[in-house]
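Quick one, probably user error.
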């Protein structure tokens, strides 16, 4: 009888470690190419690949389901998924999400203009009087979002903004640099639209873990391994292999 009790106690002590290693995490998000998006029925993208490296080192499986952004947030808040993939940290979201200390990547919002346009972005004041295309649901920094110096025209898809720009229906487009370049290449109009060098907004992007039992420990371990990866000598080579520029995940050597 004593042997049975000892065996049960040992098994109970080992359960957290085993569960941690074998647990499959499910994250919700919307498509955000080239960072993360569905491709042939499976997730793809440079942030997905980076997260996969970290989770592999944790011996933890994970899955991404693609849904509208507001639904992804609602699912995480209700505990229906283990978190949200690729989001900013806000005080409101910290009520129901656990953020790793280390962000997955950094993204930069910039101004896109017609290649023939001599306009130069020199801060928010330089946008005065302009009509600027933005994408619904995205932020471009508090100063930009709250400014009344210019007109904001909102669409559901960045492709439409670039078409409106080329048609002369708007003056400029605000978008995240990497996403905008990806979209221009996809539309084959990269020679007709250029980027203003100065950034409008720089933001870290995280994986937010819902406040479910065990996710706090997983978040800590994810942050620890991600930080170690960024400091390692192999980091730059891994980033080149998955198509990530080192500045996106600073402090990668």
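Nope, works fine. Designed sequence:
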């Amino acid at each position: 009888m004593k042997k049975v009790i000892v065996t049960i106690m040992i098994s109970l002590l080992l359960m957290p470690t085993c569960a941690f290693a074998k647990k499959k995490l499910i994250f919700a998000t919307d498509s955000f190419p080239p960072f993360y998006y569905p491709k042939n029925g499976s997730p793809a993208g440079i942030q997905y690949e980076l997260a996969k490296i970290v989770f592999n080192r944790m011996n933890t499986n994970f899955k991404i389901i693609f849904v509208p952004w507001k639904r992804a947030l609602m699912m995480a808040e209700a505990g229906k998924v283990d978190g949200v993939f690729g989001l900013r940290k806000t005080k409101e979201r910290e009520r129901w999400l656990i953020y790793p200390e280390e962000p997955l990547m950094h993204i930069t919002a910039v101004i896109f203009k017609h290649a023939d346009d001599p306009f130069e972005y020199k801060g928010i004041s330089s946008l005065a009087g302009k009509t600027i295309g933005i994408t619904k649901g995205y932020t471009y920094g508090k100063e930009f979002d709250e400014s009344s110096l210019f007109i904001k025209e909102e669409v559901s898809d960045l492709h439409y903004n670039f078409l409106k720009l080329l048609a002369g229906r708007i003056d400029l487009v605000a978008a995240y640099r990497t996403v905008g370049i990806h979209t221009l290449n996809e539309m084959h109009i990269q020679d007709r639209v250029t980027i203003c060098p100065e950034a409008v907004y720089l933001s870290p992007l995280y994986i937010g873990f819902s406040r479910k039992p065990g996710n706090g420990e997983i978040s800590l371990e994810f942050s620890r391994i991600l930080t170690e990866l960024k400091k390692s000598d192999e980091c730059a080579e891994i980033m080149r292999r998955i198509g990530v520029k080192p500045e996106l995940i600073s402090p990668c050597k």
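The radius of gyration is 21 Å.
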